[in-house]
Specification:
The complex is a heterodimer. Chain A has 12 helices and 2 strands, in the order αββααααααααααα. By secondary structure, chain A is an all-alpha fold. Chain A has one domain: Orthogonal Bundle (MetI-like fold). The radius of gyration of chain A is 24 Å and the shape is globular. In chain B, strands 7, 8, 9, 10, 11, 13 and 14 form a 7-stranded mixed β-sheet that branches.
Amino acid sequence: MRSSFSDQFTNFSFVFPALLIFSIFFIYPFFYTFILSFQSYDLISQPKFVGLANFREVIVGDKDWWPSVYNGAFITFWALTFQNILAFMLALGVDKVIRGNKFYRVVFFILPVLSEIIIGLLMKQLLSSEPVGRGVLNQWLHQLNLGGMACNWLGVERVRLVTALVHCWKGFGWAFVIFLAGLQTIPEQLYEAARIDGAGLWQCFRKITLPLLMPVIALILVLTILGTMQAFAMILALTGGAGGLTEVPVMRVYNHLRGNFAGLACAEGVVLGIILVAVSFTMFFISKKIKEKYGVLPS
Amino acid sequence: MVKSKIFNFTLSFCILHFAFCILSLGGCTSKKPQEKKITIWHWMSDRKDAFEVLAGKYKEQTGMDVEFKLFFPPDIYSQKVIAAARAGNLPEIFGILGEKKTVGSFVNAGHTLNLNTYMQENNSRWMKAFYPQTLEVVIFREGNSYGVSQGIYGVPIDTTVMQFVYNRSLFEKAGFPPDSPPVTFDEFLHYAKVIKEKSGVDGFVCGWGEGWLLNCLASEWAINLMGEDKFLNTIEGKVPYTDKQWIEVFSLFLKLKDAGILASNIATMTNKEAEDAFSKEKAAFSFNGSWAVNVYKQLAPQLDYAFFSLPQAGKYPLKVWGGAGSSFMVNAKSQKADGAVKFLKWLTLREQQKFLIKETNNLPAIKDCQEDFPPILKNLVNSLNVLTHPNVWPQNEDSRVIEVINRGLQKIVMGLKSPHEVASEIQEVKERISSR
């Protein structure tokens, strides 16, 4: 049955407020970023069209852009491995715990809820040496007779790894909650049937848990890559970039915007966006292929 | 089906377009009746109370309401002013944070009133009241590189001077006379090392995580080592950053690192953290602005410290980074521009400046207030004659080159790069940007 104009108008009027807000705050800025990336714009004067000059500057000119992408990738590597494995193990553990299940869920989810800036500043106080934070962690180590382990945690040798670990510590709660939700969708009967057939814990895990969690794992991997490559506030508060050692791509965008190089900053945003879209699609493609080829994970 | 989709799409587009038009028209409503109030936007949280007292006093004297609106932190303030300029919503008086290039963009976009006529009234009485170096920061001269018409586009309300500062108590403990700070770079290293050994505190602390402090110090040493002309020639691209004397400038930072006097993680430290550390007597020396007097007073009222000039590393006369600390601009598009200028004239009169000195411990923008300086500020007076600042140089270095300089210096003090490597990197970026 064909709907009348007034029906369509009524239907549309329900969607309109959301569509308007979405258009103003998402669609318009999204396209405006693309437009600005082809312009030289100091945020005050009239923008000037410069063609691909900003993209050339980002890709081949700026010597600090690719190192910042490397730093982002380094933190992402730790988030993909350490953070997600930790989250998965905790989710497995909590899934089996009947008592206190909700308590653990809340505890592990507190960190992602906290502001990144607050985490960064607190960790700076905790990890720094004298005089900034009076070395809280180092003082604890001394009190525990582990003074030999005390060191300059945010010094040149460790700052990149420590930043990655703080990021993982702050972020594992997200992955934990999604893993837990995924685990709880697996029917218990499957495990019971497998146990009756003589399957051990490892076989249950490999043949039931992992294959059924594949869509969740793929989702978490993509979300981790997207989230970590765009990490910024915590790193800014913790190290400020540490002379480029922990500078991540979004920090470069931020610095160029602060310097009123809006066109360049937008070009960096577009390049980063393209990288992330490409990586995300690759991840989805790989996980789809694995699923298609094996039905389960390869043994 | 296809028709229905086309219909839906067209309908959505029309309604959205209509909504945008309505919203845009909403922003162009007729102007409100003119209120008898001048609004001022600023970022100076330390002066909030003092400004409000002055606003009350102005109201008493003239009947004109003045509202100071504080936006903090400075980054947020900066974004707010730029957004307001784009939207045409600037208040009558505002400050611009940033390089002279940014001020130039505001002027060229017609947001900032040229105060030349007002300054030159009554035989330039207002203009002559300011320290010339302080006023210079808001002056655009004929043929400037920003394409701005000649004029005075702001009113400085205070003067800032960057100086070294030392802890007198730690000096005494180490056996150094507390009134004789080091004069040369080598003496400075020696003093810092000895104090570190004897008191167990850091020799030098500074917020080098904020690159501008590095840039400021490097510029002062560069002018001292190669002279101001050669320094400015480098900015103009006539002298490369790989020049021997620039390598010497960068090497000074390596010497600081190798002497072991720098606070750990100095390259990631904010100025606030450095101020906190110095006020808690955790370092013998620091490099900071004259605003630190107010900061140290709040953090540690009993701190016994004094300022001193840059430890000399070269033979050329010292120049001190400084000038207008904060300036106010008048909105050229405001209907109350005349009233705004009148208020700024009043604000820079001796009586109001004396009040600000007393309340905020900042150096004034106008001359003839020396007798009202707190003792700690008195030894900064001489430096007012040798001020230098990027805003008074004929040309500013591109901020992308400055970023590479700051990052390079951070890498030197972190032991990641040598002065030669840093110099090559800076020159490469300089050439790439200049070639456009």
